[in-house]
Write a structure and sequence with these properties.
The complex is a heterodimer of chains A (297) and B (678).
Chain A: E1 26-28, H1 32-56, H2 61-69, H3 72-105, H4 109-114, H5 123-136, H6 150-174, H7 176-179, H8 186-216, H9 226-229, E2 231-232, H10 234-240, H11 242-251, E3 258-259, H12 264-294
Antiparallel strand pairs in A: 1-2, 1-3
Chain B: H1 3-39, H2 41-50, E1 56-59, E2 62-65, H3 70-75, H4 110-118, H5 120-127, H6 135-139, H7 159-167, H8 172-176, H9 184-190, H10 192-199, H11 208-212, H12 232-237, H13 243-246, H14 255-258, H15 266-269, H16 286-293, H17 311-315, H18 324-327, H19 353-361, H20 363-369, H21 378-382, H22 402-410, H23 415-419, H24 427-433, H25 435-441, H26 450-454, H27 474-479, H28 483-490, H29 496-499, H30 508-512, H31 523-534, H32 538-544, H33 548-554, H34 563-567, H35 587-592, H36 618-665, H37 670-677
Antiparallel strand pairs in B: 1-2
The chains are: A mainly alpha (297), B mainly alpha (678).
Chain lengths: 297, 678
């Protein structure tokens, strides 16, 4: 979502200022729409994952219990399809948002794709990947990451890939009678495997690698909630994204991207939601590990 | 000569022979009659007066006709003896003679006379009983004909009327003499014997004299009487020669004639004069039995068991018309305690012969033969004196009561259940909760109870080939009610006839269970059917769970297609069979039951596809492993990336903490933080 967050206007300026370090103005990284979309996506994705996995691992007792808790298989199916609609909605909204961004700030699509805030991987990402690996191995300093790191870009496009693959096969399975007017019935079997294994990949990846990379890295422990608040302390920006910080300072645009932090009650609510999402995610991971490694059929 | 002339001559000579023969016959008849007429001369002499209708005399102030019909006398069996053959005291008397002495038939008929003299009638005569019959009362006098002559007064067809002259209702004899039976002639005429004789004209049907004899009529209390208890069997068996065979079970054959007194006699069941082709009310012995057994305190000396018989219970029972002694045979009516001669328990098979034969071969009967104390006998299920028909709602064998009846022994923990080693447990509970049990509880008496499947009297373990619940017989047993389904089943692949398999094939109870049968549209059945089919179709059931229908079924979704939704239930056939629900022609319609609008291509969905079989489903196999490769690859790369990151991340955390502590100790300057990080 190239440069989207830059236009976020601080929404808490009028409220009474909290005491202590909360008083400090924070760097606004994500727009309101982006944060809402991420929350919608979390809700949708967790719903899709839990309901879908009951089916995939129907041979485990867990599946039956979860299915029962969700109100039986039929209800679970309805949840799954509703969540899918939400997911499609999130996807389309984002595409529309991208289109608006292009209209607003870029004369051409090329400019959008190749611009400095673009999510599309470029040569520098390759350099940073190599630099990162060197850093991991103690062969160099931590690269000075910009607005989007290469793993964030990977996560971003993984969603595109996932929605394309899981969404298309999902629709096929949702409307089998319609689709078998054009494709052979046995493609439904293939679609089932692709849908469920790709979903397993997505679920597993999000709940382990993405969780670690973005929310649970030891230096950010217990949790990075930037994606929910849209704000990060300036210190963190300097530390994590030095190149972006430099660019903002150089262009003099830093100050217009600063906003008031949220009140503690809002933060607490966000944390509660985030913990709940994490808990569901980790439970799902444990379930997957159990189902794949110990109960596989 | 021509042929015509020869024939004419022959005819003339033939006529001549006939004429001569006729003349000779007529002459010989004329001459042979003459001596008879000559011998009849005295008779002719008597008839000179007595042949005249106006000949009368006065006796006791009454005018009595002395007319003897010459014609009738000439035709009577005694004609040849003339008048003085019988009225011997008038021989040579001058005319007109005095009143003759009574004729003594016994002069010639000495045997009959002797019997008659000893008989009831004879003794009455000796007593001077004015109502007592003489020979002539039955036989007539001057017009006596041979018994075989239909005109005879004692021809069988007339006997009831002859006897009835005195023994019908309203006669002086019936009113003034002590006779145990009443309405004798009326009852007889309606009895099977009377009907045969009087309505159908069967001359060999028994008349009064057949049983009572003609001349030796004696009261039934007389040991010599043909109708004495001791002799009645002999009397009846004169006609009913093979009756022992019919009654073999009622009365042991060898006792029939020798010891008739220890047995019920014919009239105990077939009442005299009222004999019909059915059992009649009786109970002449019951009162004797009840003299003791109506006492509620009556106990058997041996073990103190109550010997009380509730007469009311018996009266309302199925056996209300059966006498005590019919079941409790071996009683001896001549004893004060008639029952002391009883050595055997009641044998119901005496009457219920067919059922008895079945019972003996049943498992219960086999156990009885082994003296198994647990084996149930008739009374354990049917009761004793209060026995009721199975149609009676009060009966223990009424359909609704059958399960609790069998439960007495077969409920878990009871004597039959504890010795049972098979796999059917909680059968009573399971049955009660089953569709059959539920319907029965709701009062549907035609639903299956224990006996509907196991039979009532021919119960055998299912391992017995003759058992109604043997695998080979189960379809037939269930088919008694579920006939249409049995027909379908017999045409399905599960029928040996269709499949030709020698190995055991499933029958009704293999899928529906024996006692826990539930509606097939109930969730429990729908969700278990895969395991049920999977007992035999192990592999194919497994693969079912690899696809959508199976997976959602596993989660308890009942609407997803189960085995029989596609394959059919009782009419399941190979998919290659054109009649199969899954044949090329039918499969789209079968899918269409749930998936409206399903076409042939939709039906190409592989409902049993598995990614474990590269030969059968190569593209599914390779798709699966391709996806798995992608998954594993991504996780390996992501995992390594994360693992490598961890040490650096912890290092950063340590540095961050160190900075924070430093900041906490040193007086804060907002700018100093940024410098540290850089």
């Amino acid at each position: 979502m190239p440069e989207g967050g830059i236009l976020e206007k601080p929404s808490v300026t009028s409220t009474s200022l909290p005491k202590d370090e909360g008083e400090e103005r924070q760097f606004v990284r994500f727009t309101r729409l982006q944060r809402i979309l991420h929350i919608c996506m979390i809700v949708s994705f967790l719903s899709l994952a839990t309901t879908g996995l009951t089916l995939k691992f129907s041979y485990t007792r867990w599946a039956a219990i979860v299915s029962h808790l969700l109100g039986g298989f039929e209800s679970a199916g309805n949840i799954h399809r509703s969540a899918a609609i939400v997911m499609f909605g999130v996807f389309i909204t984002h595409l529309v948002d991208l289109y608006k961004l292009k209209r607003r700030e870029h004369s051409t699509w090329r400019s959008l794709v190749l611009g400095p805030g673009s999510m599309v991987p470029n040569r520098r990402d390759l350099t940073e990947l190599i630099g990162t690996l060197k850093w991991f191995l103690g062969l160099g300093e931590r690269p000075a990451y910009g607005r989007w790191t290469y793993w964030e870009k990977f996560d971003y496009f993984a969603v595109f890939w996932g929605i394309a693959v899981i969404g298309s096969t999902g629709l096929t399975l949702w409307f089998p009678v319609l689709f078998t007017r054009f494709i052979p019935g046995s493609f439904l079997n293939v679609a089932t495997i692709v849908h469920s294994d790709e979903a397993l990949l997505a679920t597993g990846f999000i709940f382990t690698v993405h969780f670690f990379n973005t929310h649970l890295r030891p230096e950010k422990f217990p949790m990075d909630i930037t994606v929910f608040t849209g704000r990060m302390p300036l210190e963190e920006l300097k530390r994590d994204k030095p190149r972006e910080y430099e660019a903002l300072v150089a262009s003099g645009k830093l100050e217009e991207n600063m906003g008031e932090p949220y009140q503690p009650i809002v933060i607490r609510t966000i944390r509660a939601f985030a913990w709940a999402a994490l808990a569901v995610g980790f439970s799902t991971v444990l379930w997957i590990i159990y189902a794949v490694l110990f109960a596989y059929q | 000569m021509t042929e015509e002339r020869i024939l004419r001559r022959k005819w003339r000579s033939g006529v001549g022979v006939v004429v001569v023969t006729l003349l000779a016959t007529m002459l010989s008849l004329r001459f042979s009659a003459r001596p008879v007429r000559a011998a009849d001369q005295p008779g002719a002499e008597c008839l000179a007066c007595h042949g005249d209708k106006s000949t009368t005399t006065t006796r006791g102030g009454k005018t009595v006709s002395l007319f003897v019909d010459p014609k009738k006398f000439a035709g009577s069996v005694h004609a040849s003896f003339g008048c003085t053959g019988c009225h011997a005291d008038l021989e040579g008397k001058d005319l007109p003679h005095e009143k003759p002495l009574p004729v003594k038939c016994g002069t010639c008929h000495s045997t009959e006379q002797d019997l008659y003299t000893k008989s009831l009638h004879g003794k009455a005569i000796a007593r001077g009983d004015p109502l007592a019959p003489h020979c002539v009362s039955c036989h007539g006098n001057h017009d006596i004909l041979p018994v075989k002559d239909p005109r005879s007064s004692v021809t069988p067809l007339k006997i009831p009327f002859v006897c009835g002259q005195c023994h019908q209702e309203g006669t002086p004899v019936s009113r003034n003499r002590e006779i145990a039976q009443d309405n004798i002639l009326g009852n007889y005429s309606e009895s099977i014997h009377g009907e045969a004789l009087m309505k159908k004209g069967l001359a060999v049907a028994p008349t009064c004299a057949t049983c009572h004899t003609a001349h030796s009529i004696l009261p039934h209390t007389d040991p010599a009487s043909s109708i004495n208890r001791k002799n009645i069997a002999n009397t009846c068996t004169k006609c009913h020669t093979q009756i022992e065979a019919v009654h073999r079970k009622v009365i042991r054959g060898e006792l029939w004639e020798k010891q008739a007194n220890v047995l019920p006699a014919c009239p105990d069941c077939h009442q005299p004069h009222k004999i019909r082709n059915v059992f009649y009310e009786l109970g002449m012995a019951n009162a004797d039995c009840m003299r003791c057994h109506s006492d509620e305190k009556l106990r058997r000396a041996r073990d103190g068991q109550s010997m009380y018989v509730n007469a009311d219970e018996v009266a309302h029972s199925r056996h209300s018309k059966i006498a005590c002694s019919q079941c409790h045979s071996e009683v001896n009516a001549s004893r004060v305690r008639a029952c002391e001669t009883i050595t055997h328990k009641v044998d119901c098979t005496a009457c219920h012969d067919e059922i008895g034969k079945q019972y003996v071969t049943s498992i219960h009967g086999q156990q009885v033969a082994k003296n198994d104390p647990n084996a149930p006998i008739c009374k354990d299920c049917h009761g004793t004196h209060g026995i009721l028909g199975k149609q009676d709602p009060q009966s223990s064998t009424f359909a609704v009561n059958v399960p609790s009846l069998c439960a007495r022994c077969h409920r878990e923990g009871q004597k039959a259940a504890v010795r049972y080693t098979g796999y059917q447990h909680e059968i009573i509970t399971n049955y009660t909760e089953s569709i059959h049990g539920t319907l029965l509880k709701n009062g549907l008496t035609v639903t299956a109870t224990c006996t509907s499947c196991h039979t009532a009297h021919h119960i055998l373990p299912r391992t017995d080939p003759a058992s109604s619940v043997n695998a080979n017989n189960v379809p037939n047993t269930c088919g008694q009610c579920h006939h249409g389904i049995e027909e379908q089943f017999e045409n399905s692949i599960h029928s040996k006839r269709v499949s030709g398999y020698s190995k055991p094939l499933p029958v009704c109870n293999d899928c529906h269970t024996a006692h826990s049968i539930h509606r097939t549209d109930e969730n429990s059945f729908r969700l278990n059917v895969m395991a049920t089919c999977g007992r035999c179709h192990e592999d194919i059931a497994k693969t079912y769970f690899d696809t959508y229908h199976g997976k959602v079924s596993k989660l308890g979704y009942t609407k997803a297609a189960k085995c029989y939704d596609c394959h059919g239930s009782h009419d399941v056939l190979k998919v290659t069979d054109p009649r199969s629900h899954l044949s090329r022609a039918n499969v789209a319609a079968t899918c269409g039951k749930c998936h409206e609008g399903a076409n042939r291509r939709f039906a190409g969905y592989l409902t049993h596809a598995t990614h474990h079989d590269p030969k059968k489903y190569p593209f599914i196999f390779y798709t699966f492993w391709g996806m798995t490769g992608l998954l594993v690859g991504t996780f390996v790369v992501g995992g390594i990336h994360t693992l490598l990151w961890l040490p650096r991340a912890f290092q950063m955390r340590r540095e961050l903490r160190a900075d924070e502590e430093k900041d906490a100790h040193a007086p804060e300057t907002p700018d100093s933080k940024g410098g540290t990080d850089a």
